[in-house]
Design a protein that fits this description.
single chain; 301 residues; alpha+beta; 3-methyladenine DNA Glycosylase II, Chain A, domain 3; Alpha-Beta Plaits; 3 domains; two-stranded antiparallel ribbon; 9% strand
Length: 301
């Protein structure tokens, strides 16, 4: 045994010396090849909000600051910081500040919450919309509406969206930065980002014919086209302006590049599916004051 130990000592010593030498060489190479980070990057990182929400299109604030300095990225891509941030970053870079543009806000296109929608089954699985949506297309008869399990709420780094008692998310405009995390998190694509200057929104995504849609939800779009007619009437004297609202696949859709915020579509909607909810002439005659559906199954989760 002692002879064996003595025989392997030179090999061990050689490996140890080689490892030590390579360690020295790697440390030296690291120092020689080290790329110095531009100090402007750290200064911009200090100004950025640090939310790492990804609204700028990059994985985080550090990546955004690096792109700004090294690749001359636009300095107005962070919706959280707004115009004040743009001014500060422009000052650091010694460039002229640009306009931030109209802020975006998240909008939820569904009002089919508890009490106005029907269920296919009682869901008792993982409490996420993504998981529920993957099981037979979700537990609601309407396969287009909100599932209300809060993926959007969890994804928001600004505490700007919350599930209400009716099982639907509500956006707090004062906190919403338009980062788009809730848009990405929603498996049913019922949340979108819209310029905050627009007041009118279609609160439905159901693309089924009205009789089929009504089997699952009592507050969806019936594709009656009264909104289209009203919008066309508004623009009849100006043939160069196209109608801002159209009905395709049995659902009304607003083109915000053409919308003038006249709200006529909301005023004529017979089922009050266009926000802000206005009482249409038909509902006024019936003595109704808005959405009147009161029946449905409660979600047991």
């Amino acid at each position: 045994m002692p002879e064996l130990i003595v025989s392997i000592l030179p090999s061990v010593a050689t490996l140890t010396a080689a490892g030590f030498l390579f360690g020295i060489l790697l440390s030296y190479a690291k120092l020689k090849l080290k790329v110095e980070k531009d100090p402007l990057i750290e200064k911009i990182i200090e100004e950025l909000p640090g939310a790492n929400c990804g609204a700028c299109g990059l994985p985080g604030c550090s990546a955004y600051a690096t792109r700004i300095v090294e690749e001359k990225y636009d300095i107005n891509l962070c919706p959280v910081g707004g115009q004040d941030l743009i001014t500060r970053v422009a000052s650091i870079l010694g460039v002229e500040a640009v306009e931030s543009g109209v802020p975006l806000k998240a909008r939820v296109a569904c009002q089919g919450g508890i009490g106005v929608t029907s269920l296919k089954f009682i869901y008792e699985g993982p409490k996420t919309c993504t998981a529920a949506n993957g099981l037979m297309g979700g537990f609601k008869v309407c396969e287009f509406g909100c599932l209300g399990l809060g993926d959007c709420e969890i994804s928001c780094p600004f505490d700007a969206i919350h599930i209400q008692e009716n099982g639907l998310p509500q956006v707090d405009d004062a906190k919403c930065t338009g980062c788009g995390n809730c848009v990405t998190a929603c498996p049913r694509n019922i949340i979108s980002l819209v310029k905050e200057t627009f007041d009118v929104h279609v609160l439905c995504r159901n693309m089924e014919k009205a009789p089929v849609m009504k089997l699952g939800c009592s507050v969806g779009c019936i594709a009656c086209r009264l909104c289209v007619k009203a919008c066309t009437e508004i623009h009849k004297d100006n043939p160069h302006i196209d109608t801002a609202i159209t009905v395709e696949d049995f659902i009304a859709t607003i083109d915000y590049d053409k919308c003038i915020n006249c709200l006529e579509c909301a005023r004529v909607c017979p089922v009050s599916v266009i926000s802000p909810i206005e009482v249409s002439k038909k509902n006024k005659k019936a003595g109704k004051t808005g959405n009147t559906a009161e029946t449905g199954n409660e979600i047991n989760i």
